[in-house]
């Protein structure tokens, strides 16, 4: 078996796995929710477009921020595994070709959403009377070219360089991009476009000139791929339990005061769970994201029915994502050996209850735009749901 | 009599991995569990600490079985696994805390017991670090430390020497001998026969899930008619003759 075959097989397995998970993600409830939220957003966007005044600057500023985020996100799908650093070292040269293929592959995917973003953002340029139809073509090409330059940089960064080299290339790329984007959005579309083409040739030259000489930075290759997979899993994990590979842990010393809460010091299970929850970004990150997104959605809605639906839905998603906590306790050998271990289900329940109560309070408070009665009503509804989830749904689900 | 095992048969699925194993460890006794890879050493240990349910047989620790009083049974065992098992999300200090919590040791007492060990293992400056970032040997030191601060009456140590630096090996041996003097029982599984010969009072040679021979070095020598032989000699000869190595 050649190395090409090996990676081909990995790719097949990867897509098989992803499509299996995707089936669970795109379940009926979720599709309806996405259609619903998508429709609402589209409507709001349309209204916003109508209200834009000719030659307004703010909309283009917002577009600029979104573009920056979109261009500098994502990485190359390499499908490298930790063991490769031991077994594939002698075949390093063969990786060059494979990685280039991977890069092209990833860029096709990334550029598809860049084009979508460009299409959605295009009306802003038209409404502000900034450019005509030819300008829009330049705008779309500009996005694709810069995403490609970013992809080249990622490819470059996975090879062995001095740290400063990497940093210099990144800094120069970011600054040139910001200048070129500012020119395109605020001065001249065509000049902005031309700068992007020049940059593209320059960076391609830098990257491919060094390409043949330099070997791969294995540590980074592995780390980036693991992080990428982890990110995907953390999203899928909203819907279905996925196997956890290595996760990132941060010390977060500033959060230490939280562990002083007496209930968190009673039994080993909750002692561990509370710290793990906060320090493991898989859990705390998702929790915070759901909390923020839910709060914002509720804040902007003045309709109490929509608020209630969003609130309960987000509480459900939050709770659902915390269910694997029990698995972690169950799988750990420590909690089977400890003489003084508490009730595993109860510990998980306590933690989930605490977290859901916090979410309930926050969501209720953020619904003040719908009036005081709505706040109280939502508080009641959220409490009922939280109790239902923790004491009826959770035990039943863990049993099954 | 601290640990007494009678006719223990057990394994993962229906086919037994260990068959009819009986032995005992007295107070103040250090017993070496010897056998090739896959002989059944770790499975035996897993049964003793109660991670697996035996098909058959009796295990008593200070006269009590696991079923009779699981909490008391578990409190009496300090286990150091072959590969360090640590919490990714807890610092070294929190590992000590959670151990104290689980074994009902006062936190101040646990820290008191831990301090000299931390110093010995040169870990005293790393209390706020995550042990999961440590090297293999340092992780192993954390496991040793967490087992020793509970002051159990039975220490079960699975392959303790791998990954430890020579000084740590010397320190660990000293610590084990200290515990022996204090009356604790120790069961150690290892492949490092020279170390085992130096410190163990008795040996259990296990092969293919069964006890092949047990006793002191003197008894083993006599049994196999090999005067002045080292444990290494006896074991290799035995393995050759009996076809362990086939």
CATH topology group of one domain in chain B? Rossmann fold
- Main beta-sheet annotation of chain B: 6 strands, mixed
Number of strands of chain B: 9
> What level of helicity do the residues of chain B show?
25-40%
Structural class of chain B: alpha/beta
Mean pLDDT of chain B: 90
SSE arrangement of chain B, N to C: EEEHEHEHHHEHEHEEHH
Tell me the β content of chain B. 15-25%
Q: Kindly, what is the distance between the CA atoms of the first and last residues of chain B, rounded to a whole number of angstroms? A: 37 Å
Name the shape of chain B in a single word.
Answer: globular
Q: What oligomeric state do the depicted chains represent? A: heterodimer
User: Which radius of gyration of chain A do the C-alpha atoms yield?
Assistant: 25 Å
Percent of residues of chain A in helical segments? over 70%
- The succession of helices and strands of chain A, N to C, reads HHHHHHHHHHHHHHHH
Count, helices of chain B: 9
Give me the CATH superfamily of one domain in chain B. Answer: P-loop containing nucleotide triphosphate hydrolases
Largest Cβ-defined interface? A-B, 21 and 28 residues
Low-confidence stretches of chain A: none
In CATH terms, what is the architecture of one domain in chain B? Answer: 3-Layer(aba) Sandwich
Query: How many independent structural domains of chain A?
Result: 2
Largest sheet of chain A: none
Describe the structure.
The complex is a heterodimer of chains A (400) and B (246). Chain A has 400 residues and is an all-alpha fold. Chain A has two domains: 3-231, no CATH class; 250-399, no CATH class. Chain A has 16 helices and no strands. Chain A has helices at 3-25, 28-51, 58-71, 84-87, 92-127, 133-157, 163-187, 189-211, 218-236, 268-279, 281-300, 304-322, 324-331, 334-337, 344-366, 372-399. The mean pLDDT of chain A is 86. Chain B is an alpha/beta fold and 246 residues long. In chain B, the strands form two sheets. Chain B has a six-stranded mixed β-sheet with strand order 5-6-7-3-8-9, sandwiched between helices. A three-stranded antiparallel β-sheet of chain B has the order 2-1-4, with helices on one face. In chain B, α3 (92-102) runs parallel beside α5. At the A-B interface, α10 and α14 of A face α2 and α3 of B.
């Amino acid at each position: 078996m050649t190395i090409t075959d090996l990676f081909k097989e990995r790719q097949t397995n990867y897509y098989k796995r992803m499509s299996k998970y995707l089936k669970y993600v795109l379940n009926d409830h979720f599709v309806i929710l996405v259609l619903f939220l998508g429709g609402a957003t589209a409507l709001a966007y349309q209204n916003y477009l109508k209200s834009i005044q000719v030659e307004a600057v703010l909309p283009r500023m917002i577009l600029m921020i979104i573009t920056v985020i979109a261009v500098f996100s994502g990485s190359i799908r390499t499908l490298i595994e930790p063991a490769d650093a031991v077994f594939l070292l002698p075949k390093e040269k063969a990786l060059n070709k494979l990685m280039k293929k991977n890069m092209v592959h990833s860029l096709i995917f990334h550029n598809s959403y860049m084009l979508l973003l460009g299409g959605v953002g295009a009306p802003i340029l038209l409404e502000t009377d900034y450019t005509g139809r030819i300008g829009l073509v330049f705008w779309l090409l500009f996005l694709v070219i810069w995403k490609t330059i970013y992809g080249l940089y990622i490819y470059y960064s996975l090879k062995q360089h001095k740290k400063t080299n990497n940093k210099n290339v990144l800094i120069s790329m970011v600054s040139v991009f910001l200048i070129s984007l500012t020119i395109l959005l605020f001065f001249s579309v065509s000049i902005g476009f031309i700068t992007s083409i020049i940059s593209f040739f320059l960076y391609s030259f830098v990257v491919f000139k060094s390409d043949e000489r330099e070997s791969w930075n294995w540590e980074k290759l592995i780390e980036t791929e693991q992080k990428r997979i982890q990110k995907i899993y953390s999203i899928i994990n909203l819907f279905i339990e996925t196997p956890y590979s290595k996760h990132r842990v941060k010390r977060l010393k500033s959060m230490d005061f939280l562990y002083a809460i007496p209930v968190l010091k009673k039994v080993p299970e909750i002692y561990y769970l509370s710290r793990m929850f906060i320090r493991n970004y898989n859990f705390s990150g998702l929790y915070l994201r759901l909390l923020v997104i839910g709060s914002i959605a509720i804040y902007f809605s003045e309709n109490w029915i929509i608020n209630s639906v969003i609130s309960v839905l987000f509480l459900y998603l939050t709770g659902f994502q915390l269910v694997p906590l029990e698995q972690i306790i169950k799988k750990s050998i420590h909690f089977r050996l400890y003489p003084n271990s508490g009730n595993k289900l109860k510990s998980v329940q306590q933690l989930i209850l605490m977290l859901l109560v916090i979410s309930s309070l926050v969501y209720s408070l953020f619904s003040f735009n719908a009036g005081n009665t709505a706040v109280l009503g939502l508080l009641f509804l959220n409490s009922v749901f939280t109790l239902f989830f923790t004491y009826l749904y959770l035990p039943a689900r863990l049993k099954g | 009599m601290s640990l007494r095992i009678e006719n223990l048969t057990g394994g993962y699925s229906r086919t037994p991995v260990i068959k009819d194993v009986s032995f005992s460890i007295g107070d103040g006794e250090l017993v070496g569990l010897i056998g090739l890879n896959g002989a059944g050493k770790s499975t035996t240990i897993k049964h003793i600490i109660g991670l697996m349910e035996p098909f058959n047989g009796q295990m008593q620790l200070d006269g009590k079985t696991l079923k009779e009083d699981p909490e008391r049974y578990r409190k009496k065992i300090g286990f150091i696994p072959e590969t360090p098992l640590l919490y990714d999300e807890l610092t070294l200090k929190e590992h000590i805390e959670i151990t104290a919590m689980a074994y009902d040791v006062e936190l101040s007492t646990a820290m008191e017991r831990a301090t000299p060990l931390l110093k010995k293992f040169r870990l005293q400056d790393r209390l706020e670090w995550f042990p999961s970032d440590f090297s293999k040997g340092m992780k192993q030191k954390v496991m040793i430390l967490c087992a020793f601060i509970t002051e159990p009456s039975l220490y079960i140590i699975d392959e303790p020497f791998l990954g430890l630096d020579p000084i740590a090996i010397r320190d660990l041996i000293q610590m084990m001998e200290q515990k022996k003097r204090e009356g604790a029982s120790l069961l150690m599984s290892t492949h490092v026969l020279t170390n085992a010969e130096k410190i163990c009072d008795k040996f259990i040679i296990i092969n293919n899930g069964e006890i092949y021979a047990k006793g002191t070095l003197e008894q083993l020598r006599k049994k196999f008619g090999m005067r002045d032989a080292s444990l290494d000699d006896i074991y290799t000869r035995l393995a050759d003759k009996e076809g362990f190595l086939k």
